[in-house]
Amino acid sequence: MRILVGFCARSGAVLSAIAGAVQQSEQALAWKLMEQASAFTLWIADRNFGVWSVAAQALRYQQDVLVRLTKNRARKLCAGRAMQNGEDRPVGWRPSRQDKAAPGTERETIKGRLIYVRFSKAGKWIDLWLFTTLDAQDYPLELLVKWYGQRWQAELNFRSIKTQMKMAELDVATPEMAQKEFYAGLLAYSLVRAVMWEAGERLQPGIKILSFNQARYVMLARLMNWMRGLRVLAASADQWARELIEEVALQTLAKRRKPQPSQMRRVRHRTQKFPPFRGSRDAAQAHHLATKTL
User: Fold this and answer.
1) Pick from 253, 249, 244: nearest CA to 199
2) What sign has the CA pseudo-torsion 275, 276, 279, 281?
3) Which H or E element spans position 76?
4) What digits encode the pLDDT tens for the residues 73-122?
5) Whole-angstrom Cα distance, residue 266 to residue 43?
6) Quick one: pLDDT at residue 184?
7) Hey, is 253 helix, strand or coil?
8) Phi and psi for 265 in degrees, rounded to 5?
9) pTM recorded for the entire structure
């Protein structure tokens, strides 16, 4: 099944999600997700959603987008005029013949802003092309670049759903049960995020220093104890909730002495596009760097 999840940029909780057949594109699923979302929602997305149809669907439902563009798509919007680092240019995005559109969406020009920023990260230069429908008076360039920098957190949230919540593979036999297990898992994930958000309000750095995995363990243990002593704790539910939040606030991430290196893409015993993973991780990583395989 192909899934699409919309996370809250601040708390990390799931605000919207949709599942469909693998034959459906992620852009088509995004159209349905936008249709279900409320007005004035801001969608922050990567280059896979930096297409005209996504921006048009957002405007159709009074929403806004902040999406990254590919270099070729950004050049077309530049109309042959080069952009300087830190430039913010008003543009009109007209659909091409190849651009698809959600049913009922008019193929009209979308007015927005094209932003180009070039910066260095880990010794590598990165060209960042952004398109947004937000106005320049209330949303300056520096703010939008900062907001887009938070998009990577969605990848980490999705990793928590697949690993800590053990939802990478669903042990079901029917599409209906897959849907139920998928949404039940997202509800459980969002419950942990809600408690983490409340606990983060007590900390000066906020929720970003809390460990999702440790918070999940604390909640699971306390819920099991609560179920065993339901009658005893029923009269002190408020106190039980306060103690839970206080304990979750202690589950901070460990401080790394050295930055964690990026890992190669390998999988164990699965039929996927990546090469198989055999032996120890250190030996495989050394072989990967020596041969520079993809």
Assistant:
1) 249
2) positive
3) helix 71-78
4) 999 999 878 899 999 999 999 999 999 999 999 999 999 999 999 998 87
5) 31
6) 95
7) coil
8) -95, 105
9) 0.82
Kindly report, residue by residue over 213-249, the tens digit of the pLDDT: 999 999 999 888 877 775 555 557 788 888 889 999 9
Specify the 3-state DSSP secondary structure of 47. helix
Side-chain-side CA neighbours of 264 within 13 Å: the count stands at 23
pLDDT beneath 50: ranges in the chain: 293-294
Q: What does the alpha-carbon distance between residue 174 and residue 80 come to, in Å, rounded to a whole number? A: 52
Least Cα distance to 133 among 74, 54, 72, 76 occurs for 54
- The whole-number pLDDT of residue 63 equals 97
Q: What is the mean pLDDT of the chain?
A: 89
Spatial distance between the Cα atoms of 69 and 91, rounded to a whole number of angstroms: 14
Q: What tokens appear for 280 in the block?
A: 């120890």
Domain regions of the chain by residue span = 2-158, 163-248
CA distances from 272 to 4, 134, 167, 268, 283 (A): 20, 39, 17, 10, 21
Give the whole-angstrom CA distance, residue 166 versus residue 173: 17
pLDDT at residue 122 in the model: 74
Tokens 């708390």 appear where?
Answer: 11
72-102 burial string, b = 16+ CB within 10 Å, else e?
Answer: ebbeebbeeeebeeeebeebebebeeeeeeb
Cβ(91)–Cβ(97) below 8 Å: no
Q: Which residues pair with 129 in a beta bridge?
A: 116
